[in-house]
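Table 4 source record.
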Amino acid sequence: MAGEYMYTEEAAAQAAPSRLEKGLKWFILAACIAVGAELVWLLGITPFMPFSKVNVSAAEGLSRESLLAYAGVSSQSSFISLNARTSEKALRALPQIESAFVFKHFPDKLEIVLKGREAAAVAFASLKGKMVPVFFDSHGIIFRIGHEGKADASAELPVISGLVIEEPYPGMRLPAMFNSLFQQLDTLRIKTPELLAAVSEIKINRKSFDGFDLILYPIHKQIRVRLSELNQDLLRYTLLMADVLAAREPGINFIDFRSGMASYTLKEASSE
């Protein structure tokens, strides 16, 4: 009787690990099936499904819908079907866009990062017999015509005269010889906007053979200033000298800084 009891207890002890191992094997099998199904869904199905989330940075004058249309993104676009480089190229072709980057985040997210053009200055051009403001960036690219988007945008920008612009269109590029001026204007707009705010107009005076000079019209003054270039230090010094000389000699018409030394002419002795 005692031997039979000992045999039954020993058999049960041997059977217990067997049931545990069997349960563990089923658990591992079920886990492998679940992981396999997840991988099939993640790698084989989701990338072919439409994007679940699309982030688009804002661009002035362009709606989200129009940007997606230009980028070739539809409600059916997916990670697999969309060519990010083609979308970037299409977006960069828009006059309002300076740079565009399209990122596909695996498996079903899309991000479009845009940088719109910023106006460095405004000029006036002839369009269909009318004079209209045209806005261009530091590269001399016209990207907005008229007061579309910002009704008072020109009030915050320097007015450039002396440019001959006829029948402008978005994307039109101004002569490359002026790019250094436009880049300086953009730098001044960003770093020292108060200096530009003290100038009502900057006139480009073309030379007979090559190059150009500048004529500045300080705000609230009758004095005009001739410069051969434009930068932050020179503009600050020019405005200071205009204030000092205007107080000392009311009859000054022009102050000339082109030689590096300030000289001036009186109104009755000068001609533009």
